[in-house]
Design brief:
With 216 residues, the protein is an alpha/beta fold. It is built from nine helices and seven strands, in the order E-H-H-E-H-E-H-E-H-E-E-E-H-H-H-H. Strands 4-3-2-1-5-6-7 form a seven-stranded mixed beta sheet.
């Protein structure tokens, strides 16, 4: 997993509350066990006017030009600012995969659904919880005629917008450090491999009868 330290990018003003995972990546596209191939179908029902399937690429589709992700100002944007309860609904991890493959590095909202929030850290996507009044102010800034850039600094726990507006955010240290280092749960476990091996050896010596079948 790629670590997250500091990122600067264009911001998408995604002015919607209660965005659920079926809206992020609809169920008809969940036919792959790989973590790739979902970015083309991110927010599919909103990005396109026709019904999609796995045989169609975005170039084959009818674009909904009223949807914010299709606005030319936000092409190549990598930070998404949304309203409360982002990622609610089913527990599908594909929602995070779709966002990341599309190019989203960070999602900012007043609140997130718990499972979606946890899935973000497992895959290297940074979810930032910001006070609702601060999110309101951010929307005021990023909904101008020209797209706005934002700098996200996980180490310092700050976001900074063009023009000098800056906010701090809270994040649990047990989530922050692994994300900085690019470690998922397996990586965190392997980080203690020598301690695990030492425990296993001690366990074998203290209770050898448990391991007799392994020696045969």
């Amino acid at each position: 997993m790629e670590g997250f330290d500091q990122h600067e990018g264009l911001v998408i003003p995604f002015d919607r509350s209660n965005v659920d995972t079926d809206q992020i990546i609809p169920k008809q596209f969940l036919k792959s066990i790989k973590r790739t191939g979902f970015g083309n179908y991110l927010f599919d029902a909103w990005r396109f006017l026709d019904e999609g399937d796995l045989s169609k690429t975005p170039n084959d589709r009818q674009i909904n030009h009223e949807f914010v992700l299709n606005d030319p100002r936000y092409q190549d944007a990598s930070i998404l600012v949304a309203r409360k309860n982002f990622g609610c609904g089913s527990s599908r991890e594909h929602a995070v995969w779709a966002l990341m493959e599309y190019g989203i590095k960070c999602v900012i909202a007043p609140s997130f659904a718990d499972i979606f929030y946890n899935n973000c850290f497992k895959n290297g996507l940074l979810p930032i919880v910001l006070k609702e009044e601060n999110v309101d102010r951010v929307f005021e800034i990023i909904t101008k005629k020209k797209a706005v850039r934002m700098d996200v600094n996980l180490e310092k726990q700050t976001i900074s917008l063009d023009g000098g507006t800056k906010y701090s955010f809270e994040i649990d240290e047990n989530r922050k450090v692994p994300l900085l280092r690019g470690l998922d749960e397996i990586g965190m476990t392997l980080d203690h491999v020598e301690t695990i091996r030492a425990f296993e050896e001690k366990h074998k010596r203290s209770m050898p009868w448990i391991f007799r079948n392994e020696e045969k």
